[in-house]
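Let's do one together. I've listed all components of the complex below, 855 residues spread over two lines.
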Amino acid sequence: MPAAKDIRVLVVDDQMSIRLLVRAGLQQIGFTDIVDAPDGEAGLKALLDRPAHLVISDYNMPKLDGLGLLRAIRSHEPIRKTGFIMLTGRADTDLVQRAVQFGVNNYLVKPFTVATLKAKIEGVFGPLT
Amino acid sequence: MDPMESIKATFFLECEELLGDLEAGLMALENGEGDDETVNAIFRAVHSVKGGAGAFGLDDLVRFAHVFETALDRMRSGQIAAAGDAVKLMLRAADVLADLVQTARDGGPGVEQQRSMAIAAELEALSEGRDPAPANADGELAIDTVPDDAGIDGLDFTPQTVSLDLPADLEAAAPAPVGWRIRFRPNTDLYAKANDAAFLLRELEGLGECQVTPDLSGLPAFDDLDPEVSHLAWEIELSGECSEAAIREVFEFAEGDCELEIAQLDHHAGSAALPPGPDPAGPEISLSDANAELMAELPGPVAAPVASDKPAKPQAQPASATAPAQATIRVELDRVDRLIDLVGELVINQAMLAQRASESDLGRSNGVSMALDDLEQLTREIQDSCMAIRAQPVKSVFQRMPRLLREIAAMTGKQVRLVTEGEGTEVDKTVIERLTEPLTHMVRNAVDHGLETPGERKGAGKPEEGTVRLSAVHRSGRIVIEVADDGRGINRERVRQKAVDRGLIDASAALSDEEVDNLIFHPGFSTADQVSDISGRGVGMDVVKRSIQALGGRISISSRPGEGSVFTLSLPLTLAVLDGMVVTCAGETLVAPLTAIVETLKPRPEDLEKFGPQGRLLKVRDTYVPLIDVGVRLGWRTSGTDPAQCVVLLVETESGGRAALLVDAIQGQRQVVIKSLEANYQRVDGVAAATILGDGRVALILDIDAVISSRRAPPPTGQASLAKAS
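Okay, and this is what the predicted structure of the assembly comes out as:
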């Protein structure tokens, strides 16, 4: 079983408050290796510089949106297998369906609780210790 | 602070930016300047407000933002035209959203439910392409409560699992290489950007053993050599088990300024994955030898940066590769203010030190005086840098005005267009903060009193839509802000009549147009026949004038009947320091603001004229200006001294009037740190503030305009007297 502290997570959102929230949630679960980026472009760059196991990304962002980031990750061989959880608003069924086509691993509806966040991550990696 | 509370505070700060973007975008659309990206940005702004609000359980905000977002989504997909009434509605919706955010942040009575409901209903109607219907009777919007953890209903989704072989699969997907071949070719301007190839190569050595081969093929003939550009390239074989990311980290700051190829080296096969580059001209040599070889082979200038042993430049220090470049940080204002305060003390202390040193002859010692000069220089720079932290574009005030204008226009039935210029002009944050209220009042006045109704305008042959122009510009160390309207201008007859009615002026008084216009700044003067909802809030132009003066600023008006009025504010860029002329007067030390002084001169007896029982005039190049003995004016002496023994400061007021201020002697020019006299003592007539001089004594800073205006009694130009204000 993977331990949260061994998993590096990249949080991508153009809102600092959401990044902080996700980070706080992750820390509560036991994650320690957390980096963030303010948009898809910066997220991709961060990932290419230093891979992560999991990306939690918003959809609506300037420069490169969440779907764009997902597609870019899936087409860059070294980081192709990075786990990807899309943050989405409540009504975005379309978005999730499109994200599935591009190989999203899971989705997370805003607003969310820490328990949901954990469940969504465990949906990708299996139970965390 | 509770971490959640601090994140929430971050969210509200974000909201301010988002709401600003929202309004700016909508206004661009209204002016026909927007495009698809504008609509996208607007949508993102509302979406982000909604997202954050949801996270903090701000349900009212979420509900409204949701309806707003839905309408914007339709606009984004082209179902609603991004122009006309739809945009006007969205501007009003943006106002409601801003109010809801404010309520969520500050608590309080909240937005009128009815208003937000009505706008929401209109937005819903817009989204659905029907005529607006009244909001539901129960006042509930057609959206249920928001929090949702479970997921999206009816969506068939299975999470895609990823197997984690921790931590092996992290550092590059490939097995750890035995080595790397790196080809590094700096662009010509690498050195100009404060990078240093030698430093980068040395950094690489820290990752493992390096074999460096210089590529001299780009080296021009000696006559063609430009010593400031980079001509060399290097191929480096790096052995060791470092990751590609670590190598890229070394080149992080040079990335845009060089060609960099990194390929895995297969020692067993003896070939690198890189395609062959230009043949290296030199033999393979190790890095330490490379410098020596280069020094021997190359002319100095090119070799110098390579061989230089200067310490690593801060820019080149590797930072965490994953940390995104942070363009701004948020700092609590208190901290900045504390810093500014301390720097103010430092400046004073430095001045005192310099003075003590020179008094004790220590200044003669070369070392001490040089060190003191350096200290002064540094102190100045620190001070300037601190001031720059506080400087903000006036945009933050200007961007409140469109909404204000919309509201007043709606209340008065007038049509107004706002034009802003120079929004990027920067000024101290305190000035900005204290500018909001007077400026709001002036803009309100411009619409309420200045502009005519559409009917009147049409009758006068003007476009029905009036224009209010708000502009800011830096002019000789001050910021000048103008509020101009193209309305009816000041009705001088009425102003005059009012002033006579109120006993402010004598019915027979002969006043210039300028003087009549300035009557509106007189305390208690209001030109509106009835106190209206909009301008008549018990605040007259005299209060505006006082608040501007309290900022060390000046206000003036120029008006043309039928064409409009221009209010001009001139404000200091910072409230913390002042360039002053230090003078002696009646045994006291005073500071006169340098900006007000036109020239200084020694009066000649033949240029002095008596004027009335007490007044005296001084002839300066064929014009007479009133001569004011500062010592008498401030009550430090009763009888005037002999002007021939004194010095005159020829000063100019904001309205262009000149006066000659008589002081005993000039000590010199100095930048002084302003200390509030009001906060530490009390308000003194004719004195703007105080400062501490190098010798530790307190000196008063003259309020030139007040000193001059107190000469006149009663004041026909309505100068607010300091005595009354205190």
